[in-house]
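Table S2 (continued). Query chain:
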Amino acid sequence: MALTEDQKVFFAENGYLPYERVLSDEEVTQLRERSEAIIARRVDHVPERYIQLEGAFRNSPNANEDRLDQVRKMTHLCYFDDLFEAAARNPKIVDVIEDLLGPNIKFYCDQLMMKPRFNGTVTDWHQDSVAWPQFAPQGHVSCWVALDDATIENGCMTVLPGSHKWGPIERDRKSAFFKSSLIPDPVPVELEAGHCMFHHGLNFHRTGANATPNRRRGLALHYIRSETLYLGAKDEEHRRMMECEKAPGEFRFMLIRGEEFDGRV
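Corresponding output:
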């Protein structure tokens, strides 16, 4: 087991867990350099549709500004890139996921949140699982790995402890929910590069803006149990998004550890 009983209790009560270093300096540097190569188009193995610019640049990218400072996030890197897949399979991370989810683990997707220097915008309060209603139950666990030092000033993760216990709150009801006097005080989670935190898919979290000259890249790795039911997404968008890279009907989410089951994800 990777976690102590105290750590398991903390996660169960609060829905998040600051953790230790899981990537070496060398691994962090490799992932930074690979992400920069993808953004600069020095390599072309990641489809362009998985690279999203900050809102200010989506309609008119600034040719005079480093593209690295215009990208908001990249997704699904683990399905296309060996270094990012290795990060998703890192035993230091997966051992904790097994403690929290059990022995049969699938990988849903990843998001490399770039939070570019000077241009990084706020990501408002949200629950990841609300965006993924195609899965049941909604028991996802995410590992958020800092590729740069994440501070309050450059937009580190902030969480609402215990909010995972309230269940999914639909986006159009979120403002009413946040007016409640029962909302706990937000807790910022600052991390050094190579360190990580884990959070439940129903834990409310946000990140601030980054107007500093320091990059704040964070790799979010999203895991689900192999036993999870796939209920179908709106217009089957999520499954078709990956099937377009393979023959139709062949895609299944990445098995990380344990068994997979017929009729499940």
